[in-house]
Structure formats: C-alpha cells, structure tokens
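Backbones bend. To wit:
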Amino acid sequence: MVGRLVFVAALSVSSRGAAQAEPRASLVVIRGDGARDCPDADALAERVRAVAGTNVIGVGSSASPIETWVQVAISHDFAGYNAQISTFGRRHGTRALEDLGPSCASLADAVAVTLAMFLDPYETPPSSSPRPEPVAKKRSPEPKAPATSAARESRFFIDGAAGLTFNLLEHSEPFLGVGLGFRPSARWSVALGGTFVLPDSKVDGSRSVDLRLSFAFLQVCALALGHVDRASLAWCAAPQVGSLASDGRGYQNNFAEHSLWLALGIGPEAAFRLTHSLSWVFGAEAVIPLLEQGFDVQSNGVRSSAYRTPSVAALVSLGLRGHL
C-alpha cells in the first residue's frame, strides 16, 4: 500500500540527531466501533516520533506547555478506513485520509507520516501574533487550507443502469436507463435522464398486441445515511414523462396508437464507492401512474381491453456512476 511505502521511506531518512526535548504537541485518538484494530494514542504517537526522529508529540500533559493539540478520529465502513485529522493551537488545520485496504496498518502509517511532517521541528513554524489567544478560546478555528476529499469535489456524475420492471407492462421486462446529475451539496442531488423499456407483447392465439414504453425523468435525491464519498443511502423522487405505444396485429381492424405516459417514481438509492471516479448504484423505485391510459381491441364485434396502466408498478436497477 502507498501509506506503508511512504512510512518506510520516511523512517529510513529520519536520521536528524535532534535532542529529545519535551513534546509541545499532545495527541488524542478516537476510534469508531469498526476501527478497533487501529493504533490508540500511545501507539500512534510512538509511530510519529519514529518517523520524525525526535519527540515531537506526546499523549496527555507534558512538562513543557502544550502549543498544539492534535485529534485523530478513525472510522471504518463498507468503503474502508477513514481518518479525520484536526489540529488546534499554534499549528492548526484539518486533513482527511482514506484507505481501501483490509486492515488499518496502511492508514496508520499514512497518518503517522502526515503528523510527522506537520509537526516537523526543523521547518519554519507558522507565523503567529505577538500575543496569541489561549488554546481554549480557539474551539472553532478557521483552517488556512481546509482539506476535502476528492469525492466531495466531484459535483457532476453520469449514471448508466439496467434493471427489471414489475407490473408495468404485460410482463416483467428489462429496461435500460441513463442520466446526467449534479450535486449542489453533500446532501442533495438532481439528475435528468431517460429510460427505455424493452418491448412487450400480449398474445391471444394468432393475435397480439405489442407494447412499448419510454420516458424521461427528473430525479431529486436527499441523503439519508452514510457519506457520498464512501457508502450512502438516499431517498429519491422522480417525475416521469414519456410515450406509451401499442400495435395490434391479427385483428379485424389493426391499430397503432400512442398515449402520454405521466407517472411519479419514489424509492431508495444505495451507492457504494469503488474508486475515485466510479460507484456502484442500486435503486428500487415504486412507479405510480398519474394518468390512466389503455388500449382496446375488437374481435368478432366484441370490444375488449388489451392493456390498462396499473395502479402501481416497480423498477429495480443496478448500475455504475461515473464522477466527473
């Protein structure tokens, strides 16, 4: 892993013979339920000191005044390990690190290297005012360069999906869908796209009625659980406007008709991040037609219904999302 290589390289070159002075930075580590295999504050501080080659950080109180407080919050979910680094005091800022490995070792190495570089005593310390405010008053510092993950910077996305319909036409039929979306914030997303349902047929002996459906949709989703850059669950609503077509064959009076399709789709959407630019997307949608449409046929002078829009139907899909 990249983090382990960086850790080994940094350890091999950290030969500065600095005196082991009392640390002026103190470390706090918060581990989530799924990150218990990650190092605690004592173990992580030892890694940082090994990389830096000097006693740059400790845990708890120190004989020297603490100038910088460092908090590392580590969590683990479906997409891997995540570390949120926040520093307060003389040196302040934030940084987010992620690792997709099966264990916390690579992420721990990357965090240690990051803290060692940040607290390097040989670098010029950041400028400060002649009379800096006490650390206790800086509970909500403004980072000079807030770090955001690459996933949060991806506001536009393209969806491609395939799935199956239930109770939509005469039989359950496959469908294909595409969409172009925009994410104005981490919570909301909007997508414009289209869906094509493969043609279906209702057969009655030598006679048949062919059904075709395609529609455009405008989907609005609100994040309910998770993070858009790892794994997330959202609730979506999508108005649908399109064309419902039918062709009769083998009847006394064959016909070809088109009707307006107007419906509302509502359901959950789950996304799982694969890479920086790709995610798996699973969707389940209840479809409620807003207009009752249908086609009638006539045989031997008897008129009968060939198709009527259902009161409710469903779409289930699986696809890929490309983050632009």
Summary: The chain has two domains: 2-147, 152-323. The radius of gyration is 30 Å. The helical segments are 2-13, 41-52, 105-118, 150-153. The first helix runs from residue 2 to 13.
